[in-house]
Design a protein that fits this description.
This protein has 14 helices and eleven strands. It has helices spanning 5-15, 18-30, 45-59, 82-88, 120-132, 179-187, 200-205, 217-221, 247-252, 255-263, 267-289, 302-311, 315-325, 331-341; strands spanning 33-37, 67-71, 93-97, 143-150, 155-158, 173-176, 191-194, 211-214, 230-232, 240-246, 295-297. Strand 6, helix 6 and strand 7 form a beta-alpha-beta unit. Helix 5 (120-132) packs antiparallel against helix 11 and helix 5 crosses helix 14. It is globular, with a radius of gyration of 23 Å. The N and C termini lie far apart (55 Å). Residues 11-16 and 20-29 have low confidence and may be disordered.
Length: 344
């Protein structure tokens, strides 16, 4: 925001108020635009349904001249770089997928363990309680956490082959969001391939991968119904996400503006995000069930469900081994997450 200081001085001299001049100059020095980065396009789910409404709420309450502005479509940096953009101040706020940066948020990846996050509400409750208890605090020391949440549970989307049991995934290549989820896919007989979200459609269309593990929104934001019309309603895993703010940006705010950010961040905001995610997931499912080009492989029998459970029976130990490779003891977090979800 460009301020004409000369005009301010002239106006202030006419009023004879030195105090007013000081106040105006201080306000001019503080006023600025804050960059909010999203790797999604502006019309994407997170950009349009979560980040934009959050920006609108914040801007309506900030002091005059301070405004947050969305920079969508990876304008400021590639999807895996979002956390680094915030840390370095290239972006003031960003939507971050922790799984894109293996080893930086190792314990947060507890959300990827099967049964921890069948819904966003479930996964978000686990992550926020772990954060409040201090178990995840070290991973977010460099940031102001606006929201910490998960996706809805992932389904299996495939190009041609209907998948009902793990044996159907034998030899399939599936896009996965992280090394651990790739390990889950290998336990099911397939192989995981790391591909950023915006490139998934092209790789499915070209046959580079046979399918993906993802959420229902992928049918809307990335039009996967055109290239992966077979859908299996097994909520195998989920991805953690966060909206993170640069700490220096937050610290430089006035006390009044800090209060605005504080009131629009944390557990309550995370729960709001989770409700938007789960409701939208249900809406897209309804929409796609009315799409004759999409085939739902659901209503799995007890025997089919048992095959999935058996194939993934070692998933917790695999997660613990990955944590060890990062020099982290994941057992206390795993046990606490299971306790929160009442899985034991």
């Amino acid at each position: 925001m460009k301020i004409n200081t000369a005009n301010l001085v002239q106006k202030t001299v006419k009023t004879g108020s030195v105090l007013l001049l000081s106040a105006l100059l201080a306000a001019a020095a503080q006023a600025r635009e804050f960059r909010v980065s999203s790797f999604e396009p502006a019309q994407g789910f997170f950009s349009s349904k979560i980040i934009t409404p959050w920006i609108e709420q914040v801007n309506a309450r900030l002091s005059e001249g301070n405004r947050f502005r969305l920079y969508p479509g990876s304008i400021l940096g590639a999807p895996p770089a979002q956390q680094e953009l915030v840390k370095k101040g290239v972006a003031d706020v960003a939507l971050v997928v922790q799984g894109y940066s293996p080893g930086l948020f190792p314990l947060t990846s507890i959300a990827e363990v099967p049964r921890i996050a069948p819904t966003s509400a479930d996964g978000t409750q686990v992550l926020n309680q772990l954060l409040a208890e201090g178990a995840l605090q070290k991973e977010y020391d460099d940031y102001k956490v606006i929201a910490l949440f998960t996706t809805h549970g992932y389904r299996v989307f495939s190009r041609e082959k209907a998948v009902r049991v793990p044996a159907d995934m034998q030899g399939m290549k599936l896009r996965t969001p992280s090394p651990y989820v790739s390990k889950l896919v290998s336990m099911l007989g397939g192989s995981g391939v790391s591909i950023p979200a915006p490139q998934v459609y092209e790789n499915l269309d070209r046959g580079v991968v046979d399918g993906v593990l993802w959420v229902m929104d992928a049918y809307k934001t990335f039009r996967l119904n055109e290239v992966a019309p077979q859908l299996t309603m097994t909520q195998l895993t989920a991805s953690p996400l966060a909206i993170l703010m640069n700490k220096a940006t937050y610290s430089a705010l006035s006390e009044a503006d800090k209060k605005v950010i504080d009131e629009l961040s944390g557990e309550a905001t995370s729960r709001w995000v989770a409700s938007v995610i789960d409701n939208y997931d249900a809406d897209i499912e309804t929409l796609m069930r009315n799409n004759s080009n999409v085939s739902f492989n659901d209503q799995l029998s007890a025997q089919e469900v048992a095959q999935w459970d058996k194939a993934l029976s070692g998933a917790e130990n695999e997660w613990l081994e990955i944590q060890k490779s990062f020099g982290v003891d994941g057992l206390p977090v795993l046990q606490q997450a299971q306790k929160i979800r009442q899985l034991n």
